[in-house]
Structure formats: C-alpha cells, structure tokens
Amino acid sequence: MVVAVKVFKKTSPNGKLTVYLGRRDFVDRLDHTDPVDGVIVVEDGYIKSRKVYGSVVVNYRYGREEDEVMGLNFAKEITVFKEQIFPQANNGEVSELQDRLLKKLGPNAFPFRFQLPEQAPCSVTLLSGEGTSGKPLGVAYEMKCYVAENDEEKPHKRSSVAMVVRKVQYAPVDRQAKQPSTLVTKGFTLSSGKLSLEVNLDQDVFYHSDQVNAKIQINNSSRKQVKNIKAQIVQHCEVTMVNKHFTRVVAEMETREGCPITPGASLSKTFHLTPLAKNSKDRGVALDGQLKDADVNLASSTLTANDRGSADALGVVISYSVRIRLNCGALGGELMADLPFKLLHPQPGSEEQQQHRANQKAAAIDRPAKGDDIVFEEFSKLRRGKSVDDL
Length: 391
Prior knowledge:
6% of the residues lie in helices and 43% in strands. With 391 residues, the protein is mainly beta. The strands form four sheets. Strands 3, 5, 6, 8, 9, 10 and 18 form a seven-stranded mixed β-sheet that branches.
C-alpha cells in the first residue's frame, strides 16, 4: 500500500520563492523543541547578488487592539531565530523528508533548519468577547523566508513567504502514574466539629474531550448542613507579560442529590465533567487553535521540565483544576477544594493517540516519514488551527 506524504506548500506573491514544510506543529519536548525544517525553491536567476533569509517570529498580544490609544501598544513581536538560507550558512544534516524533497525539486531547492529557543512560549489563543474586533490575544508563531541584500533589510511582501506555525506540547507517556487527591476541612465560629471534603481523580493527565471523573467524600462532623454541591473544571490563565492571572469555568455541574447533608452524616459521590471549547463562550477562555475553527480544543496545560512549576514559563501559562464547592448556607459560607490536573493531546503516533481518535471516530493516522509518494497541499487553503497529523 502506498502512503502519500503530505507537504505544505506556499509561494511568494511574485511567484519567485516557494516554501515546503512537512509539518506545521513543532513539539516542545521540555529539554528541546523540534526544529522548524523545510525546503525553499528559488526561481533560476532571481537572486543575483542578494541572499535568502529565514526567520521565526513570535507575536505576543496581551491586550486588545482597540484599546491601543495615545501610543499604547499591547503587543510584542520577537524574532526568536534568524539565519541565512542561501548562500548556505552551514551544511548541517537534513531530514529524510528534506532529502527526498531536494531530489524531487531540483538544484534550486535549498534546505533550512530553524531551532527555537528552549524558553520560547507555546502557542495559545484567547477567546475574544462578542463584538470585539482586531487580532486575538495570545501567542502566535510565524515562519518567514524572504530575499534581501542583508539581514538588516526589511523584507518586501512580494518577495517573501510567511507561514503560521505552532509550538505545542503533548502528554507524557506515563499518564497513569499519579492519582491526585486532596483533603480540606472547615471549622465554624461558635460551633464545634468540622466539615471535611476529600476529592480524588483516577489519573493526573487527561486527553482533550476525555471525561473527568471526580470522586468526592464528604464527612460532616459539624453542626451545619450542606445544602448543595457544585462541581467545576476551571481553566487558569497566567499572562506573564503583565503578571495577570484569571480563571474561566469550562465545565460545570450543580446538584442537591443527597442534600442536605445533616450533622453526623456523610456522602460519597462521583461527578462526570467534560471540558470542551464549544461549551465555553466566556471571553478570555484559552484555545489551542484559531477562533474560526468549529472543532478547536481548549488550550493544553503548560508543562515545564522536571515539574519546576510555571515560574520559568513565558507567554500564556495554562493549568486546570477540578473545583468542588459545598454550600453551607448564608451563615455557614462554603467549603472549596481545588485539585489540579493536566489536559493535553496524546503523543503523535502513540497507541493512546490511535485509541483516542478511534473513540472520536476520527480519520486514520498518516505516517509522513514512511510514504512512497509526495502530495503538495497549498498552505493558504488549510485551516490554521488544524495540525498536519489530523489530515
């Protein structure tokens, strides 16, 4: 059976440069990030004494475009990598796909390989409110190849190719290793005894569209009553540029079943919650793709090497937690427990990914590196929120 290799293709407005990419999602593996590699084809005789350069730019927007008045600017553009492609600055190793493209495209094809820095933030898009215009908030990457006299010259649009790429993270292989648990208690003024709440999850890492099962155990040794229970999945967003933190509820359930929980009574219950982007319309909800995509996912949790926490992370840092609230009435207040977990995509090509897609009735996985033929897809016709692995 012949499996075609899908390659993204885009040509400059003047038709002189054409860039080929084998993928658009580049994986952050904590200790390093997969390189942005591809091939550029230059029309014969077009370059003359000039050079071809390539760069990767991260656009970090942390404020609304319509609020930019009196010289204020809520966006930062950072060039994280720039290198000369032709004449070749180096003769490093090429991947199997690059080698095949070079043989297929002829002598005017040149490989490039851009290495993103370790601290570069992951791609995230924040949902704008209704009626909001302008560019969405978040972190976006753009790879650009262009012709210029030197690396300081501003590239012309007609002789440059820009392609949106993404930096992403995937779930670790041993996602069943941890079973998170938390226990909180609450005492009441002028009243003896305490109310305790224990929350447990059967795993630490969940895949997008998975159901999260939160098991709770309530023991009421106080003199108050628990009137109702609310279970939520909360997305926590930290915008590091302005040191701002906010939360959004992405799944919610409230019940009075088993209530009131009277003094001396206990209750065991399991809440089934599924965090989905389509159910989250609040402004500020973080997504992992473009807003126009109907099947876009919530943003994945931000991972750091050796679980160092988010202190060293940049961009928009995402985390999730299950939040359980026990309502004890107007005078008793409430008891709240937060239990963190991770929400991610399975590793590409893994058994978990295959099973995950089968459960969603998705298409079969393509294996680009082992195909016998090459099919070129026009880059502009593809939905920007979709990964090459989903095609």
